[in-house]
Amino acid sequence: CRTAYPNLAFRLGVLLERLAVEPLRADGQTIDAAALVQVLTRLTGTRAGYMPLMIAELEQDVTVTYLALLNNEVGTEDAEGAASFDMSDPVQAFLADSITVLGEGGEMGPVLEFLVSTATLLAGDDALPALQSFIDESYEGATRTKLTELLATVTPDDVAKSSYVAQLRAGQEAATPVELTPEEEAAQQVSNQRMLTLIGAAYFLNMNIHCNEDFQFERYEDALNAVNDLAFPQFTDLASLREQSNTCVGWPVAAAPIEVKNPVSSTVPALILQGAYDTRTPLFMGRRAARELANSTLVVVPQQGHEVWTSATNCAGRIATAFVLDPGAELDLSCLDARRPQWALPEGE
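and the corresponding structure tokens:
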């Protein structure tokens, strides 16, 4: 990539400055600096592999890859693709192909919802009819048709022989609660209600923590000055920055002691899962945590944003599970190789 696209960071800065004053127009779209930033910051699926080519084309006023990314015509494949599934298992092949269909919109939310729902249905009885009902109720149009066609390739015998299904059912059995007394059941209901309350109060918990530990020690003016030192100030949202700076005005918590900002040191084994494209807790934070935690392992997951551990069966999930089972063992990180970007190169290279 670096050979095909030398000095790419500098070239991107020049391109952003040019588009700010001389936007391009193509296919009814105005491509200014803000529009380009919107495309650059959508790093779902395998979109990152097309970004250098897009930048190089836009330098020449060519908009082919830009429009393809904008319209979700490329880069929609899941970053792991079929790598996290055994394609010789028809059930797992169905899941992998379905993920490709659902990822065409460039969003991971529908994919995660699908995986959670199908895992529950596959672990139960009459899995195939239940899956078909789920598809009929949850999807429509071409998406429903494609998923139905994929499901039709799976037979009851495939489900019975699937190691993936066996793993799901074993997990369900292990999680099945013992029979409770009336008193224990009542206590469980109270606990469940408290959990629902906590989930609904997550926003307030988040606010209390940040207003107590973070925002009290930060000023909008300092952040504004820091913007000018950024390599790409066009990626900042000053309006949002000002809004955040006022978030804690009047919030009923006092500032924590300044010592709360001191680094944490520990020799307890720790696993730090870091998305390479995480914009909420960027890579420098993961690296800093790794320096401060003496017995830590930093795992940077390629082509991943903030939500890293989203499934027990994906690459990050398998790494995390292995760590929990044996924190002192050397981790097998080979599954990360399948996630590394496949860069789209200029024609002829």
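(Above: one complete record from the training split.) The chain has four domains: 8-70, 84-175, 192-259, 263-332.
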